[in-house]
Write the structure tokens for this entry.
Amino acid sequence: MKTNKKEEKHCDHLLKTIGDYWTLSIIMELKKGEKRFCELERAINKINPVTLTERLKRLEKAKFIDREKELSDKLSVTYSLNKKGLGLIPIIDEINSFASKS
């Protein structure tokens, strides 16, 4: 199957954005619903807060997640998968299915 340079560039960018353990863990946790930072930190075992912050920023910049500040509390922020982020779920599920067969 032939691919062009533009397709390769898009694929490389996607893999750099979501292709690590922590990022996939964040996406899978957000698949369950919106979460605050501290909820993500507790749910994703052994993730460093600095790593979590960096991955969330990366996902937000790539427009896979939405970051919402709560009006009642300026320090409270929730994260959720948006439409683009939800589009990753079938792909990740298929990768997990493939990996479990190997």
Q: What stands out?
A: The CA atoms of residues 18 and 24 lie 6 Å apart. The radius of gyration is 15 Å. Residues 5-101 form a domain with the Arc Repressor Mutant, subunit A fold (CATH 1.10.10.10). The chain has one domain: 5-101.
